[in-house]
Amino acid sequence: MMKLISNLPIYLRYSACLLIFVALTACGDDEPAKGEAVTGETTPTAETLAAPGSSCSCDADCTSSGSNTGVCLNSICLAEADPLHTCDEEGTTANCPTGFQCWGELCWPDCDAFSCDGTCDSDGSCVYLPDGACDSTCSRYCT
What we know:
By secondary structure, the chain is an alpha+beta fold. The chain contains 2 helices and 6 strands; from the N terminus they run H-H-E-E-E-E-E-E.
């Protein structure tokens, strides 16, 4: 068999190798795995989203709490206040889900209600660490 191949002109040998290579690479699995986007990236699901107080890089990393949209602020998942993203009064629980305090336009998770990947402040809210960072291209509240 090797003698037969070695007697072929060089361009035919290279063509045969190229044909075999193309055929082998085309034999892959065309269907994406469950939870995998067509691009090969994993699409976030409720099971993979970060809970309030957890580390994050982008808003899409954070789970929403009811009608309060999850957001990432300097590496910690928070929630937007509802409605109109404002607090009626600073430090209250109005406009926020249970287990949060409202400050500015955001609901900060309480350390006694959620695990905190940041630090707990004097009000008992989970806040980001001084060196916390996030991606401003995918997080509205990155500073």
